[in-house]
Amino acid sequence: MKRRLQYIAAVFLVAMSIYGIDRWIRNDADSPSTLASTATRVRPSTCFECHNDIATKYAAAPHNSTLRRGDDPEVIAALAGKSAILNDHRHSFVERGGQLFAGHSAMPTDRRVDWVFGSGHHAMTPVAIDVDPDGHPRLTQFNASLLADGELGATPGLGVTVGQRDPAQTIAGLPPTHGKISDPAETRRCFGCHVSGLPQIDGRIDLNNLIANIDCNRCHPGATAHAQSGGVAGLTLDWANLTPLEAINRCGECHRRADEFTPDELGPDVLHLVRFAPVGMAMSRCFVRSQTTEMATSDPRFARFDCVTCHDPHAPASTNAAHYNKTCFACHDFGKGGKASVALQGPGPHPGQRMTSGCTAAGAESSCVSCHMPKKESGEGLFFTDHWIRVHRR
Ligand code: HEC
Ligand code: HEC
Ligand code: HEC
Ligand code: HEC
Ligand code: HEC
Ligand code: HEC
Ligand code: HEC
């Protein structure tokens, strides 16, 4: 327990030291989750000329389909014709004139689907937009979402019941609804993490002119000037110059960061944290011991370890066990006995002593992540990978 608190303290100290330097890392009103970008932008197609390989593979990246319109042919192909019984009523999606609509068996008219959140790797949630009495846009998440198995199911987090409810549980007098309305502030946050530019007019988000999806510019500030200069001008941000914690917190701007939570909320058994990869990673002994302590950062034998050690942000996550094993082997050795140990010197009782943390459970050919980073249900019907690398006891 004491040890864990020390790790938390280490993470917090480093997090605090970078807190003020770069506002992008902060999740306050000025963070890009509420970003208002009106600067001249260069479309990702401009990058093709010189970064053909990355720009080509980016077309299939989940980051490139975080938000699509309700008239997007791929979205229509995925949703039109599907239906499910939710909260006692049949919810369905239909296409009319190249536009997706949501039907509800107890409603006289269909409602237009304006946007769809999520690439479909985990879920696709259709939403409709209207305005509140002050004219601020707000979204309604439909009760039905497309889940990873390709079937329509309950939108996670809305408390929607699949099928017919027990009459005793039906809340008397409540009219049936298409879904759940988010207030304007939440609406702004939803779009903020799923777009690359969210302009505003008179303090209202301008959904007609947003730049959908996470494009090159969102992760590579300065790319516009860089491209316009023919690749001569440097970028404002060089990911390699960030410390590992700064780097995972950048990704954590959308994927969430450990310093957004109180120490009480950061336990290995807090299930919903599996959704927030940078939180788990920042808490892992692998990360804390090799990346955030002074000993670690001054020891060149510690390989750099951040999100891009395992993930190419320009492509879907690899599903290949060997790919991930390779990243473990950068620090963990399988010695003569076939046991994993940390191939580095650590602060043992004797200077220069080798850390011996062996894997007594499996050999070098096994899938390390299947046991040490298992997939878990987050509590809302979706599965995520537990990025808090550790021994899981059953
Ligand atoms: C006219 C050619 C050209 C265009 C267009 C171009 N780049 Fe580059 N880019 C380069 C060259 C050349 C380098 C290598 C610079 C170096 O290594 O110093 C580079 C390097 C980069 C790097 C790595 C920087 C680093 O510090 O390692 C990134 C990221 C990048 N470009 C992003 C983009 C994006 C995003 C776009 C589109 C908005 C773009 N580039 C458009 C030529 C171009
Ligand atoms: C601007 C917000 C934002 C930032 C910044 C961001 N992501 Fe994401 N990321 C998302 C969203 C939204 C999704 C969900 C895409 C979907 O619907 O499948 C996602 C999905 C992913 C996935 C899942 C891919 C898959 O195959 O399912 C990985 C891995 C990932 N991001 C890694 C990163 C890394 C690494 C960084 C930092 C270099 C990063 N992200 C930065 C918003 C962001
Ligand atoms: C702080 C940034 C952030 C905010 C705010 C946010 N999202 Fe996301 N969203 C993400 C990231 C990162 C992912 C990918 C990882 C994950 O699935 O959690 C994602 C994934 C999704 C997905 C794909 C399915 C899934 O759960 O993986 C949907 C659908 C979605 N978001 C809808 C929404 C809606 C609707 C809202 C507002 C009610 C919202 N998001 C607010 C960052 C955000
Ligand atoms: C989710 C964030 C994210 C997005 C979106 C993104 N990148 Fe990157 N990119 C990164 C990170 C992080 C690195 C550093 C990778 C590393 O150090 O291995 C990188 C590295 C690069 C590099 C230099 C390294 C290399 O492999 O040559 C280029 C060039 C580049 N990106 C271009 C692009 C282009 C073009 C796009 C849009 C089509 C794009 N990126 C979109 C996060 C992103
Ligand atoms: C040690 C390797 C490793 C590192 C480092 C890592 N991931 Fe992952 N990540 C995985 C594995 C394994 C998967 C599951 C891939 C699969 O089989 O679908 C995954 C999946 C994901 C997904 C898809 C949703 C899920 O949970 O399955 C997201 C989003 C993601 N990672 C984000 C990140 C971010 C952000 C970082 C940096 C904080 C990061 N990852 C660092 C190994 C890693
Ligand atoms: C950058 C180096 C590095 C990488 C990469 C790395 N680890 Fe570690 N890992 C460490 C260090 C350092 C420790 C702490 C050893 C100690 O405290 O004795 C550790 C500890 C562990 C522990 C014990 C954690 C605990 O809380 O008890 C496990 C299990 C583990 N690593 C598995 C893995 C697996 C599996 C991978 C690949 C997915 C991986 N590690 C990648 C450096 C790394
Ligand atoms: C079948 C599940 C399983 C697989 C596969 C597996 N491990 Fe383990 N690992 C465990 C268990 C269980 C322990 C705890 C063993 C013990 O306490 O005796 C452990 C312990 C460890 C430790 C020591 C942790 C500590 O407390 O010091 C490391 C490091 C480790 N594993 C790394 C790996 C690596 C690297 C791989 C991939 C080559 C791997 N493991 C594959 C289940 C597994």
What descriptive keywords fit this protein?
alpha+beta, 7-stranded antiparallel β-sheet, binds heme C, disordered N terminus
Give your account of this protein's structure.
The chain has 14 helices and 19 strands. It folds into two domains: about 1-30 and about 240-385, no CATH class; about 65-195, no CATH class. It is globular, with a radius of gyration of 23 Å. Strand 3 (about 90-95) and strand 4 form a beta hairpin. The protein has helices at about 1-20, 45-50, 50-60, 75-80, 185-195, 215-220, 225-230, 245-255, 275-285, 285-290, 295, 305-310, 320-330, 370, and strands spanning about 65-70, 85, 90-95, 100-105, 110, 115, 125-130, 135-140, 145, 150-155, 180, 195, 200, 205, 210, 330-335, 340, 375, 385. With about 400 residues, the chain is of the alpha+beta class. The model is unreliable at about 1-40 and about 345-355 (pLDDT under 50). The strands form six sheets. Strands 1, 6, 7, 8, 9, 10 and 11 form a seven-stranded antiparallel beta sheet that branches. The chain has a four-stranded antiparallel beta sheet with strand order 2-3-4-5. A two-stranded antiparallel sheet has the order 12-15. The site of one heme C has 19 residues, from helix 8, helix 9, helix 12, helix 13 and strand 19. One heme C binds near residues 51, 63, 239 and 314.
